[in-house]
Amino acid sequence: MRRFVVIGTRATASPDFLLIDLPGTSGRLDVLLRCVRAAFLVSHGLRRDTVVYLVLLGGPAAPRSLRIDGASVRFLRPDERSLAVLAQKALAAPCEGDGFVTVKPGVAVAAGGLEAVLDDVGPGASYVLDEGGADLRETPVELADPVFFIGDHLGFGEENRRRIDARPAVAISVGPMSLHADDVVTLVSNELDRRTLGVAARSTR
Amino acid sequence: MRRFVVIGTRATASPDFLLIDLPGTSGRLDVLLRCVRAAFLVSHGLRRDTVVYLVLLGGPAAPRSLRIDGASVRFLRPDERSLAVLAQKALAAPCEGDGFVTVKPGVAVAAGGLEAVLDDVGPGASYVLDEGGADLRETPVELADPVFFIGDHLGFGEENRRRIDARPAVAISVGPMSLHADDVVTLVSNELDRRTLGVAARSTR
Fold this sequence. Notes:
The structure is a homodimer. By secondary structure, chain A is α/β, with parallel strands linked by helices. Chain A has one domain (2-203): SPOUT methyltransferase, trefoil knot domain (Alpha/beta knot, 3-Layer(aba) Sandwich), CATH 3.40.1280.10. In chain A, 32% of the residues lie in helices and 27% in strands. Chain A contains seven helices and ten strands. Chain A has helices at residues 22-25, 29-40, 80-92, 114-121, 158-165, 181-197, 200-203; strands at residues 2-12, 41-42, 45-46, 50-58, 64-69, 101-104, 107-110, 126-135, 147-150, 170-173. In chain A, the strands form two sheets. Chain A has an eight-stranded mixed β-sheet, with helices on both faces. In chain A, strands 2-3 form a two-stranded antiparallel ribbon. In chain A, strand 4 (50-58) and strand 5 (64-69) form a beta hairpin. The model of chain A has no long low-confidence stretch (mean pLDDT 94). The interface between A and B is large, with 47 and 48 residues.
């Protein structure tokens, strides 16, 4: 199972953002929602072996975290507005107590930030996306249950980065340009696809 | 200069789609708009060396094509709604005569489909994304002015594929999974970044 943990430094943990101005009213939740599309949706299908955590650290309801599990999520659509509606409904649900509470199939919310996510993820080979990290293509990756930590346009925040490094996590990079978080998810997913499925399968058709 | 040509088999060439239901009212123009984000927007910047053509073959105003030129486009935002507004305004402009007509800085429209785009692109090393193609990572690419042809979720259409193959174009694939068009753009861009900029630059910081 692949796990992606995306940190939204200012992404709102409240449902009171506007669908007609997502970037301007949600603390750039749009950046994180695009990661959901990139992680799950492939041509005519959905990656069932993937789990995405969005760590929402912005707004008065923060910190909260969203978990989307490909194994059980239903009706996941690729367009940003549909994903925003899904997040809005999930964040409108009551959220108390410890750990993740399922609000609809495959979608759960926790009252907590990275620490709640780390408790839920448990141990596992960890990788942190870092522009100074080793090239992913040249880095061995544990293919069974890897966890990838990705910052948003503002990074991770010092305390969160310290927690990630303490797991420990291997610092990796995906290329010479600094990219949007969703492109990073796409590139990591492609590298994992290549390692698990091989590249020859389709080119010999 | 990198050129991406994305075919929207049913993507609307009219501005009369609804921003609140882009996938349902635009013939999946959303798929093509996400390609625009993937092609141009990087962290805190825009790829000025890239041109994207969207070939819109759906609806009563079809065929029309949109051209977005990174060298001169302004205020390009990553969220889908902003990109849809840009397309809607461009498609509302009058569009007659031959070739592309600039409707705002860096954005032009032509009354024509792939044939209008091919006239504008001119000669150049061409590559067509094809699940049966050779692995991009193992394929030599002309780095000066390559053109990449990408189909949407329905492919290219027989006649358009014939035209592309006739340039001729090298069939390439990006991995073992069949992916959304925007993920393909991300993967091609990353490979070109690696070949033009190298991968060591950041990992030695």
